[in-house]
Amino acid sequence: MAELRLYVTATERQAEEILDILSDCFMEEDYALGTTEVDEKADRWEASVYMMLDEEAELFERIKAALAESFSHLPIEREVLPDIDWIAKSLEGLKPVRAGRFLVHGSHDRDKARPGDLSIEIDAGQAFGTGHHGTTAGCLEVIDRVVRRYEPRNALDLGTGSGVLAIAVRKLRKIPVLATDIDPVATRVAADNVRLNGIATGIALETAPGFHSAAFAKHGPFDLIIANILARPLIKMAPQLVQHLSSGGNVILSGILASQRWKVIAAYNGAGLAHVRTIWRNGWVTIHLRSELL
Ligand SMILES: C[S@@+](CC[C@H](N)C(=O)[O-])C[C@H]1O[C@@H](n2cnc3c(N)ncnc32)[C@H](O)[C@@H]1O
């Protein structure tokens, strides 16, 4: 059966509020929700709920009721989604992505870098992380800010995928970075990308599930930990992650849907970290937290 999205067009701020309302409305259900930027200059965004075609009538009424109080003036629109091979599509014609001072591009776009850009070359391949996903771009933006402000001396990139975030840290500062992934294919691809980006030393790669490796004790503790995984494993690993964090250290978490952010923040507050800020990209959030200086 075909899929459909019902959506509301709004400003970015309104779209965030709408997403919060819809997240509450569909809290324990499996509907995908998201916000997408349509026109940056005009501040036009869409907040969407995705569903099967036969669910439309019921969900339309629920969305209408949920938005009645604050957004009844915004029409609910519909789009039937075409059957697309999303994997093939995602590999086609990837354009360079800007996030913070970084420009992440494929080898075909080397010439797109401008003076002052920190360019990272990643070709779409077998590991996640070309910069196009809201979680990767969100991490890059926060990494730029955090590394400049706090000048970390030892970093960990947990769930490194293509290695893009470890490479980003190393491009900003010549500090040691441990980059790990549960998937041996990802650590292999990351090693290739590290070389491709001209980084000869400083990034150690390790295949490991979560914190199950002696490499963490050997290379840690870390004063910057980045983990772009998913909300559930991030919540589970909060106590271990904090054990490997230095006093005053920074943590950047992503892979979290906007609707899941409070649970993740609560888990890390419980483990002793303070929330600094949350940024949004296409329905995904990236969270920056900090430990107290002891
Ligand atoms: C969303 S991708 C992020 C890749 C890259 N860091 C980025 O930001 O684009 C998540 C990565 O985490 C890895 N991963 C998932 N669960 C993990 C775990 N428990 N321990 C280590 N790596 C994990 C996956 O194999 C995948 O490469």
Q: Under the CATH scheme, which class of the largest domain?
A: Alpha Beta
Helix percentage? 25-40%
CATH superfamily of the largest domain: Vaccinia Virus protein VP39
End-to-end separation: 57 Å
Briefly note the structural class of the backbone.
Answer: alpha/beta
Second rung of CATH, namely the architecture of the largest domain:
3-Layer(aba) Sandwich
Low-confidence stretches: none
The distinct bound ligands, ions and cofactors come out as: S-adenosylmethionine
**What is the average of the pLDDT values?**
90
Strand content: 25-35%
Number of domains: 2
The 3D shape can be described as globular
Work out the radius of gyration.
20 Å
Summed up, the helix count is: 10
* The CATH topology of the largest domain: Rossmann fold
The total beta strand count reads: 14
Helix/strand order, N-terminal first:
EHEEHEHEEEHEHEHEHEHHEHEE
Strand line-up across the major sheet: 10-9-8-11-12-14-13
The largest sheet is: 7 strands, mixed
Keywords: Cytoplasm, Methyltransferase, Ribonucleoprotein, Ribosomal protein, S-adenosyl-L-methionine, Transferase
Organism: Rhizobium oryzicola
Protein name: Ribosomal protein L11 methyltransferase
Subcellular location: Cytoplasm
